[in-house]
């Protein structure tokens, strides 16, 4: 198929490569230049504008930062893409924005699917991401073969109409953040009680926070939050979406967002989201590790 892939960040670049490996005719675009080199070497065509990228596409994939970037790019897609072109939006944007963009796409003569992914850079490279899809049955059938290039077929879920995918993804990422907030407080209390850090991490890894601790054990032990699999500024964006859409107060999420905001203010925005725990537990001081 002729596919335009817009957004070549850590996740987007890996996902786009799977489309090339599957034999699709791929055109790529990124707002800032310099990220398409490896894809071009592998056979992709780099476009200098959104319009150039989507003009001949059958499907347009979006993997951008958040709602504002999707809104701007989707309008440009509508100006240049053919009527009936399907937009597959894998950006995590929240339920309300997905509903808005579904209506916007319809008004522009486009079809729209929200399909945020569950997982970070390693499963993106390995083609084992989870995918939560909000779409009509017809559109889901159209995009499913593409989703299976970067997603594990057992983890691709058609969860309902447009915006259902992002509704569920908001809940998933809330748990990711709150769990890391729990790790932060456990580490801080352990430090205050003078518990050996290796013993503390090993024991926490056997408890209810074990997934978060074991997945990020090396970072938590060293205080080095690179390489980034999922950045702290992206986590804060997702926690903010959850707080904005909730009808009732979410005090744990609010506290976790405050931890993330403080760590970002200290310069950890582009670090792995594990910096939330490290910064809070050790007050941002490398000497504390």
Question: CATH first level of the largest domain: which class?
Answer: Alpha Beta
Q: Which strand order does the major sheet show?
A: 3-2-1-4-5-6
Q: What radius of gyration results from the CA coordinates?
A: 20 Å
CATH architectural category of the largest domain: 3-Layer(aba) Sandwich
Structural class: alpha/beta
Distance between the termini: 51 Å
Number of domains: 2
Describe the protein in words.
This protein has a six-stranded parallel β-sheet, with helices on both faces. Strands 7-8-9 form a three-stranded mixed β-sheet. It contains 14 helices and nine strands. It has helices at residues 10-21, 37-41, 50-54, 67-80, 95-107, 121-126, 137-150, 164-192, 197-204, 210-215, 217-222, 232-245, 251-268, 275-282; strands at residues 2-6, 25-29, 45-46, 59-62, 86-89, 111-114, 117-118, 129-134, 151-160. Strand 1 (2-6), helix 1 (10-21) and strand 2 (25-29) form a beta-alpha-beta unit. It folds into two domains: 2-160, NAD(P)-binding Rossmann-like Domain (Rossmann fold), CATH 3.40.50; 168-288, N-(1-d-carboxylethyl)-l-norvaline Dehydrogenase, domain 2. It is globular. 55% of the residues lie in helices and 15% in strands. By secondary structure, the protein is α/β, with parallel strands linked by helices. The model is unreliable at 285-289 (pLDDT under 50).
List the helices and strands and how they pair.
Blueprint: E1 2-6, H1 10-21, E2 25-29, H2 37-41, E3 45-46, H3 50-54, E4 59-62, H4 67-80, E5 86-89, H5 95-107, E6 111-114, E7 117-118, H6 121-126, E8 129-134, H7 137-150, E9 151-160, H8 164-192, H9 197-204, H10 210-215, H11 217-222, H12 232-245, H13 251-268, H14 275-282
Parallel strand pairs: 1-2, 1-4, 2-3, 4-5, 5-6, 8-9
Antiparallel strand pairs: 7-8
Helix pairs in contact: 4-5, 8-9, 8-12, 8-13, 8-14, 12-13, 13-14
């Amino acid at each position: 198929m002729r596919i335009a892939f817009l957004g070549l960040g850590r996740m987007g670049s890996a996902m786009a490569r799977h489309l090339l490996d599957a034999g699709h005719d791929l055109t790529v675009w990124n707002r800032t230049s310099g990220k398409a080199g490896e894809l071009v070497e592998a056979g992709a065509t780099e476009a200098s504008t959104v319009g150039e990228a989507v003009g001949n596409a059958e499907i347009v994939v979006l993997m951008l930062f958040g709602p504002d970037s999707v809104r701007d790019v989707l309008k440009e897609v509508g100006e240049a893409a053919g009527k009936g072109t399907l937009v597959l939006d894998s950006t995590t944007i929240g339920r309300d924005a997905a509903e808005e963009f579904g209506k916007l796409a319809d008004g522009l003569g486009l079809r729209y699917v929200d399909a945020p992914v569950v997982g970070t850079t390693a499963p993106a490279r390995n083609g084992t991401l989870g995918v939560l899809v909000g779409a009509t049955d017809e559109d889901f059938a159209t995009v499913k073969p593409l989703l299976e290039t970067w997603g594990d077929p057992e983890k691709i879920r058609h969860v309902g109409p447009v915006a259902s995918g992002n509704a569920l993804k908001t809940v998933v990422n809330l748990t990711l953040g709150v769990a890391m907030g729990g790790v932060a407080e456990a580490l801080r209390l352990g430090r205050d009680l003078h518990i050996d850090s290796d013993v503390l991490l090993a024991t926490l890894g056997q408890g209810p926070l074990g997934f978060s601790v074991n997945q990020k054990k090396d970072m938590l032990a060293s205080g080095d939050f690179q390489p980034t699999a999922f950045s702290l500024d992206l986590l804060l964006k997702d926690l903010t979406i959850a707080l904005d859409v909730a009808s009732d107060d979410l005090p744990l999420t609010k506290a976790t967002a405050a931890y993330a905001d403080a760590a970002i203010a200290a310069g950890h925005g582009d670090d792995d989201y594990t910096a939330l725990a490290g910064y809070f537990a050790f007050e941002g001081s490398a000497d504390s590790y």
